[in-house]
Amino acid sequence: MATLVQDPGDPSSDPSGTKKRRRRRARQRVAELAAAPAAISPEATNGGAHAAVAVVPEPEPAVTPAVLVPAPVLEPDDFKDLLGQAVGLRLDSVSREFGGNDEMHVTALRDVSLEIGPCEFVSVVGPSGCGKTTLLSLMGGLDRPTSGHVYGAGLPLGELSERDLADYRLQRVSTIFQAFNLIPSMTVEDNVALPLTLAGVELEDRRKRARHLLALVGLEHRAGTRARLLSGGEQQKVAVARALANRPGLILADEPTGSLDSAAGEGVLKLLEDLNRRGATVVLVTHDPEVARHARRVIRMIDGRALELEAGNPTVRKQEPVDPAPRLHWRDTLKVGLGSAGRRPLRTALTTTGVAIGIAAMSLIVALAGGLAGALSAPALATSQVHQVTVYPAPDAGKATFDNGTLTTLGAQPHVRAAWGEITMSGTFSTGVVAPAPASPGPAATPAPDVKPSTPTGVLVSLPPLASSSATPVLSAGRLPRSDVAKEVLLSDSEAAALGFLSARGAIGTQVTYSATAGALAVPGVDRNLVTHPLDLKLVVVGIVSGNAMPAGARGGVAPYGTVRDYWAQLAKANGWKGGEYSTITLLADSGLAVEGLRQRVEALGFQAQTFGDQFRTFEDVLGKMRVALLGLALVALLLACLGIANTMYTAVLERTKEIGVLKALGARARDVLLIFVAEAAVIGLAGGLVGILVAVGLGRLGNTFVDRVTESVTSGNFDVFRTDFGVVGVGLVLAVLLSTVSGLLPALRAARQDPVRALRYE
Predict the structure, then answer these.
(1) Which of 210, 300, 377, 544 gives the lowest tally of CB atoms within 10 Å of its CB?
(2) Which residues lie below 8 Å from residue 86, measured CB to CB, with a gap of 6+?
(3) What tens digit of pLDDT does each residue of 165-184 get?
(4) How far is CA 54 from CA 39, 40, 48, in A?
(5) pLDDT tens digits for 285-331?
């Protein structure tokens, strides 16, 4: 701070020389007062009643101007706010025994009583196996005494719950291990920030503090390096930085220089001394007397007993409580779980593949069920061959055709939505002129060079009514007729070739003339409705169909239902026919459930009946068996995936036993460890679910394309057998995560129940 001194009088009223003299005398007086304290008389020193104080010359009455004396510059304190309240320790007749019925019985500590006051620096020395590390574990809350009491920060450590012990380790104490106990696959910064992560500190805050601590130990340039790549000295420095992360009041150092060279070890000891001077309680375990000399008090351990050369400072039973830490955030839990899964890429990939196969199979089966259910209720399927009953004359009927009265009778049956007959006529096709085009001046048009006049025989078949049936023939080229009364025709490819077209597509747009020779399909030995007065029907070719769409593969054409029916009526009137219009009659049921009942009623009337189900039943049976087989395969795949996850997690628990011990030593609760392993299993399940659903969607699309091509003769519309929606995707993801989480739960519980002391010693 600056010192303020005043000069007597008003400086502005004195001459210049007087001002200078007065200022010089004032500065000298200030220096004398600062350098020498007031002299005290012997009477004052001896406590007499008449203490005499040395006479100090009175200052001149003049007031000098203010003189500013600069305060000393303080060096920056890099260790500010690194430590918490110092922790005192007390052990009352503490003993610790190991072993049970199946293990060798060992007594590590025997009736140890000692006190370590707050801010003490104590060294515990002794040979290997004398109980030093066990004593340190009891002080740090990692272990419980077999008998006696251990108090830390006024808390009875042996009587606390696991949750409270974890809070004690997280907020009161930090341990510097001889073996460093860093997590090798984590970066240096993540290792230092691990206690802060367990305490629920926000990401930016813990990164800032971790970098500050690394700067204190001189490793800020190695923050992004994996811990396994550091030297022994660097790893010990990282362990020291990690020990300071949560501002401990008690630092337990277990042979901190045992794995270091002399220079690095001396640096660690100086750091411990400095932390002790700044208020931390330090307990140093060592077997080296030279290291023990850095402490201000030494406790010697021999055969589990503590021998003190001098008593320690008394400690307090109760210290100021600390606020409970927010604890591990779920985002950090997922991050740690994801990092754990990424450390074993091959095993994780194989386990994820198992989950993906199971989810893909399940998704495909669910999509198949949804697709079939949607297809059964689709308008296109309601008018397709699936809902149709085809009626044929009885074998002993004596005639191979139906009259219009029969069509009316069958159409009046219950659950019949529509009824129509198939009209088939025999005759000849001939080519005429090309479909009309805009007139233009010039010579008369000549036939196209690829068309040769010809009159081949062929059949003309009626299409089903467009409004009642979607079972239309498959087109090779062109389009369907626009209406049931359009003067248009679909030629078969063989008929187009017979008419002289070099390419069937070349017939599209051409006008053809059809002349019937019989009002029914010409069958050898049967003459029915012969034409004696022919009539011509002019039609425009609008499409090409395969010969499979014609009766018995005959060549010819397919024309709209109304057009063919009107043409047949004109022929019947001109030639005096008395019926026999239809070769077959088709009935459209109003639902799929009514098809079989309608068929039985038709057969009861004496007709032959056939449904599409008769042709499809064999395939349907095969499909049903395939669905059961796929479901079984999916269940087996899911079971194997679950076993794979359980095996992966169980192996991970064994491999990471020491890591579990480190987490618990740093203050992780059993719940935190459980959530980390469960999160890892959930991450595997989520990845497997996403891959499985993507595979299922891709295979579903390929399957829909294949089914569309196979069923082109059944329905003209697209038939989505596999219908995947957002509901299926969501259910698949939830199922994958749920199954993976359940599969990893038992290994996670085993990890959460690990004893920290045994876990730290696991190799």
Answers:
(1) 377
(2) 118, 119, 249, 250, 279, 280, 281
(3) 888 888 889 888 878 888 88
(4) 5, 6, 15
(5) 988 888 888 888 889 988 888 887 565 566 654 566 666 666 777 77
